[in-house]
Amino acid sequence: MAQAVVIGAGPAGLMAAEQLAAAGHDVLVAEAKPSVARKFLMAGKSGLNLTKDEPLQTLMPNYGSAADWLHPMVAEFDSDAVQDWARGLGQELFTGSTGRVFPSAMKASPLLRSWLRRLDEAGVQIRTRWRWLGWDGNALSFDTPEGVQAIATDVTVLALGGASWARLGSDGHWAQVLAEKGVAPAPFEPANSALSVAWSPHMQPHFGKALKAVRWLAGELESRGEATISATGLEGGGLYSLTPALRSGADLHVDLLPDLDAATLQARLAAKSAKTTFTQWMKKALKLPPQKIALFHEMSKQAAVSQGHEVAALKRLPIVGARLRPMDEAISTAGGVQRDALDGHLMLTAKPGVFCAGEMLDWEAPTGGYLLTGCLATGRWAGRGAVRWLDR
Fold this sequence. Notes:
Number of strands: 22
Shape: elongated
Distance between the termini: 19 Å
CATH class of the largest domain: Alpha Beta
Strand order of the largest sheet: 6-2-1-10-22
CATH topology of the largest domain: FAD/NAD(P)-binding domain
CATH superfamily of the largest domain: FAD/NAD(P)-binding domain
Structural class: alpha+beta
Number of helices: 14
CATH architecture of the largest domain: 3-Layer(bba) Sandwich
Radius of gyration: 24 Å
């Protein structure tokens, strides 16, 4: 018997456990992997972006069609609250020039150690290698190193993640379990995804090089962030926010010179010496780095850009054949438990006493602090909903 069980020890699950423990309830956290918060730690390897330091009215549009649903949750645990919470765990923070907030240590591990220590002091029990199998009657069933365990509980919070990075724990296996209980999640789709591009051998010298000072366009979305040319295609924060449009079939274009308009470029091209090749002009007059010039030639050739249309191609170069990488490689996923399956406290209407949080909910947000803020905020909201259920 456990008064409250949280399944999934990522940021959303740990935040829910923190709320339950703070209210004086006994909490057991079950995690399928040998250690907790593996995806959180992986995200922190390149600098843990906790949140984006911006007001709520600027923050919320980044949650797209789910913004109105998530608004009360994020309003109660917004950027300022995330920063205060991290500082309360002894973390010094700094805000970068783009407003992104990081721990000064630039790692997730010091924050996680402090968080786990606080949870332990609050009496939270964590069991690893406990994989949730579903329900055995009214009890929760787990595959554990000691065999199958059945745990009766008064309240459950599911924080099982989406369906990307399965090796770190988010394999989406729970979708079938819930479907059998009458809760049909929206199909999973990649979010914050890198792209596959079939490069010619001429692009190989530019693998690993960054494309900076560009504007990416897909459908009605655009981004000024950078991306990196990889052996398999393109990846980077500048592309991730375009995933919703690319998922729906929009073509990808890039403006290689977003700070110069077409008329200015055309005038500069007209002044070019007849002896100067177009490549030399891009290098000397426009100061384009080799990777941008290579990308221009690669894609203008594939798109059959005709003579006289080069300036238009510089401003809107099609990335021919670009497609999303496999879902398991995506940073996060769209799809999951839908809003109409939940009440206002994130409790499943088909399973009273069972709450959901984090990436397993049907919402998405770009990287840059929005994704993690959403996970923490929904974990807190579900945890507080579970407290209300226990205290009713």
